[in-house]
Each structure stands twice: as C-alpha cells, then as structure tokens.
Write a structure and sequence with these properties.
The protein has helices at 38-64, 81-92, 105-110, 117-145, 157-177, 192-216, 222-227, 231-259, 261-269; strands at 5-7, 31-34, 271-272. By secondary structure, it is mostly helical. Helix 1 (38-64) runs antiparallel to helix 4 (117-145) and helix 6 (192-216) packs antiparallel against helix 8 (231-259). It starts with a strand and ends in a 13-residue tail after the last strand. GO terms for molecular function: electron transfer activity; heme binding.
Length: 285
C-alpha cells in the first residue's frame, strides 16, 4: 500500500472547526500516515461475522460425519472424539454433571447444534460465497492501495521476529514489575511477526476455499480433491484450516489491544498519527 506522510500545518485548522473520526486531528509537529485502503478495511471487518458463521455451521456439519473416529465404545457405542470430550467435560466439570446429552456438549456449545445438517449446509455455503466475494474485495484493496508490498517477506524477518517475540513475552513481566519495556523500532508498516501472520491468512483463505470445493464436488472436481490427497484428506485440511483462523484471531485481538488505540483506529478510518519523523516519505512499506 502506498503510504504518505503528511506534515500537519497548525494554521490549517481553526479551533472552532468540527473534527470527525475520519479526519486526522491537527496537532503541531504530528505527521499523518495513510495505512489501509477503504476496501481492505471493509473486508477486514466483514470477515468477523462471515468466519463466525462458517465455523458454527462447519462444526455442525462435522457432527454428521466426524473426521476423527475410533472403535465404538463398548458401553456407549460412541466413536466420535469430540463426543468423548463432551462426555469428559460433563463427568469432571462442576455444574455439568446433569447435562442432558454429554456427547453433544461440544456441538451444542461450539456450533449451531447437532442434528442440523441441512440448515448448517445452507448457512455454510451462504457464508462461503460471501467469504469468497469478500476475499476478492480484500485482494482488490491490497492491489489498489499497494498494501501487498507490506506483506512480502524480508531477508531480516527471522531476526526481527525473534526481537518481537522477546518483546511480547516481556510485556506482561514489565507491566507487573512497573518496568519500562521498549517496543523494537521498525521502519516498515508491519513487524516481522505481523507480516508472517497477515501473509499466511490470505493463503489459508485460498486453501479453505479450494478444500471446500474439493469436498463439495469430489467427482466433478476430482483433480482438485486429488491435489489434497483425496476426499478424506481434503476434509482434514479443511478442518485444521478452520483452527488456523481461530488460533490467529485470538492473539491478533489481544496484540492489537496491547498495541494501543492508534492501531485499531487505523483499521477503522485508514490513517495513523503514530509517526514522529520530520521527513516526508513516499511509498513506504
């Protein structure tokens, strides 16, 4: 994405002029950075309900034919690992001992529920088509704004990633001991860990779509299913790609909140003021 640093002229704004969330506040000596294209911002926020719908409906679909099975239990006849987890929770967690259907605990709490295959399939494919459309919008935003450059790997990423990992691991201890813990300085839009994560998510999205079609049309798209090792293996790919999104979202939200309001605001209004250099830089990535 093309980033522009703009010097703010204190005389360009009068005290009585109204300000808005989409217009940078004018402060002497502050430089404003354009960070995210409007298409990138819109598609970013739309991914939240779409992924939620895909995950909830996807786990309900999983209920009808679990990937991970074992020999039927001689007492219960159960063969589903997710059902095993539900049975264990109901047996060992306080307050869950009298749950009506222990094998369905996971599906009742993490999906639309068991026995809802038809509805789950409709919702899943509705969200899937919208997810593909939204992904196209996101890629268009990266292309139009030049943001794709900031996602490309650098030669120094391994060293920079270790620096950032040390910083993130040390933040909680610094807070507890009231010590100053300086954030490593980078001249790029994203640090190495962010770049690796943000680069991997579009790749994971593409693989999720590809494996989804391989599962949905295994005969018509037999060549696609074969690329992933066949129908059953494509289901495994699809299942673990879902968990990749979940494992990305949780630390992503925590780290954004830890980084401060400026990072969150940039994804809402597209600009940032977290720059104090005096020079004007074009095409920074």
């Amino acid at each position: 994405m093309q980033l522009r640093l703009q010097k703010v002229n204190p005389s360009a704004s009068l005290p009585h002029e109204p300000s808005s969330a989409s217009t940078p506040l004018v402060q002497p000596g502050v430089l404003v950075v354009k960070r995210h294209h409007v298409l990138v911002r819109c598609s970013h926020w739309l991914n939240i309900p779409l992924l939620l719908g895909l995950i909830l409906s996807g786990i309900s679909i999983y209920w009808s034919s679990p990937i991970y099975q074992h020999k039927p239990d001689p007492n219960t006849g159960n063969f589903d690992v997710a059902a095993d987890i539900g049975i264990w929770i109901c047996a060992h967690v306080h307050g869950q001992h009298h749950y009506a259907s222990p094998p369905d605990w996971i599906y009742n709490h993490m999906s639309l529920g068991p026995g809802m295959l038809a509805l789950a399939l409709r919702i899943h494919w509705l969200c899937a088509y919208l997810f593909m459309l939204n992904g196209t919008v996101y890629v268009a935003g990266l292309a139009l704004g030049g943001g794709w450059r900031s996602l490309l790997p650098r030669r120094t990423d391994l060293f920079d990633a270790l620096r950032m990992l040390r910083y993130y691991l040390g933040v909680p201890f610094a807070k507890l001991t009231h010590r100053e813990w300086l954030h490593p300085h980078f001249s790029t839009k994203y640090n190495a860990l962010q770049r690796a994560a943000y680069f991997s998510i579009p790749v994971a999205g593409f693989l999720s779509v590809a494996t989804g079609w391989a599962i949905h049309k295994p005969m018509q798209l037999h060549w696609l299913a074969a690329l992933f090792g066949g129908f059953d293996v494509a289901r495994v790919w699809h299942f673990w790609l879902m968990w990749l999104f979940i494992f990305f979202v949780v630390p992503h939200v925590i780290l954004v909140l830890a980084d401060g309001w400026d990072t969150l605001r940039a994804m809402i209004v597209g600009w940032s003021t977290k720059v104090d250099r005096s020079e004007v830089i074009e095409n920074e990535s």
